[in-house]
Amino acid sequence: MNTWNPWHGCKKVSEGCLNCYMYYLDRKRNVDSTVVHRLKNGYDLPLKKDRYGNYKIKSGETVFVCLTSDFFIDEADEWRKDAWDIMRIRKDVKFQLMTKRPERIKACLPEDWGDGWDNVALDVTTENQRRADERLPILLELPFKTRGITAAPLLSEIRIEKYLAQSKIDSVTAGGENYDGARICSYEWVKSLYDQCVEYDVEFEFFETGAKFMKDGKVYNIPRLLQREQAVKSGLNYPPYDAKNVVITDKCRRCEKRYMCKGRKDCAGK
Ligand code: SF4
Fold first, then answer.
1. Structural domain includes residue 270
2. pTM for the full model?
3. Could you tell me if residue 266 is inside a domain?
4. Count of structural domains within the chain
5. Residue nearest (by alpha carbon) to ligand 1 atom 4
6. Mean pLDDT of 65-78
7. Residue 93 and residue 270: Cα distance in Å, rounded?
8. pLDDT per position as a tens digit, 192-243
9. Which residue has the least CA distance to atom 6 on ligand 1?
């Protein structure tokens, strides 16, 4: 999986941030996660070339942006233009943005954004009903060619039918929580999202169970390495994995390269 972290650090904004994995990892290194800073190495990663002059990130690959921050955090306003410039240069690469701050996006888009760039997709995170109802109406109005919902860490049942019904959401992904203090994720909540996506014919990916997964009233402690496998075995993916093509490691069933393209219609294997 390609990740590009042009800046690091973040401020907690909602319930899903409580056990943020970036805070957890920084604690182990004695780093203050609340200090948002541009990274000296790696801020221009998509432009890096190998010794033969070829881009290290290949054409057609997907890059997940800002996994140790939030791309739209206000502290990064002065650096974001450079990041947009890089995405404009690498039109051949798919950039996947994810945010808990959709209300900031409109004012942060570049002048030539128009109705969205083909190579930039946006996921908004919604961990519970309250955040879904705050953030998804904004997501639906934002000019992006590809829009998704990431329900992780999933903390409750979320009803999103009225948003899916508008045919502007391309995919929904869901997963449980990890690291210190991980909260329970319930099979019933995932099943509810799955059912809603099936009803509205929207792709649904249950990508990991989280460390504490509850089914039929029993809580299971699931090691990280087995969480993906257990999620696949739950059968809560739409369209379903067929028996031959079940992917339980890190391969995508469409492009057969990297799982984290999420097997979307627009993944590298299209
Ligand atoms: S927005 Fe994301 S990166 Fe920032 S504190 Fe919350 S979970 Fe962590």
1. no
2. 0.89
3. no
4. 1
5. 10
6. 98
7. 13
8. 999 999 999 999 999 999 999 999 999 999 999 999 999 999 999 999 875 3
9. 17
